[in-house]
Amino acid sequence: MRLSFRTLQRRTAWRDALRHRYAPRRAFKIGRGASHDSQT
């Protein structure tokens, strides 16, 4: 169980790392960019 939990945590951390690496720019562009474009 400990090994599984650790592996899961590691996978989640790795996923988060990838998310933070790639998502921010897209989310930032889509989220704020779209809002700004809509308002302007």
Explain this structure to me?
By secondary structure, the chain is mainly alpha-helical. Helices cover 95% and strands 0% of the residues. One of its GO terms (molecular function) is sequence-specific DNA binding.
Please give the structural blueprint:
Blueprint: H1 2-39
Protein name: DUF1534 domain-containing protein
GO molecular function: DNA-binding transcription factor activity; sequence-specific DNA binding
List keywords for this structure.
40 residues, mainly alpha, 1 helix, 0% strand
The portion of residues assigned to helices is over 70%
Shape: rod-shaped
- Helix/strand/pairing category: mainly alpha
The largest β sheet comes out as: none
Rg: 16 Å
Count of individual beta strands:
0
Low-confidence stretches: none
Separation of the first and last Cα atoms? 53 Å
Into which percentage range does the β-strand content fall?
under 5%
Overall pLDDT confidence? 71
Q: Give the SSE string.
A: H
Count of DSSP H/I helices: 1
Q: What's this model, at a glance?
A:
The chain has one helix at 2-39.
